[in-house]
Amino acid sequence: MQTYLISYDISENNPRLKASRLLLRAGCFRVQKSVFIGTLSDTRYLRLRKSLDALRQRPRWSTTDQILLLPLHQYTRDNLDTIGSSRNDWPLIFRELHTLVI
Fold this sequence. Notes:
Blueprint: E1 2-9, H1 13-25, E2 29-32, E3 35-40, H2 42-54, E4 66-72, H3 74-78, H4 90-93
């Protein structure tokens, strides 16, 4: 399992919405409007990567659109710093919490 920070800059609504749905369906969590974090198995990551790459073939994909997939190593995760409101679900996002009680 590897944790990824995934962000996109997509100009058109249709491919942008498709990208966000693919990320959420893959088990990623939205941390900002166009920024997601997900801890994914190799298989799930490769499937997601392939689906996101397919968005480039869509008619509304612009040559300036971009999706970044950055692996986060343990050191990076442990030293995560935020300014402003802090999320209280980091253990869930990083798959450290296995049971969610509501």
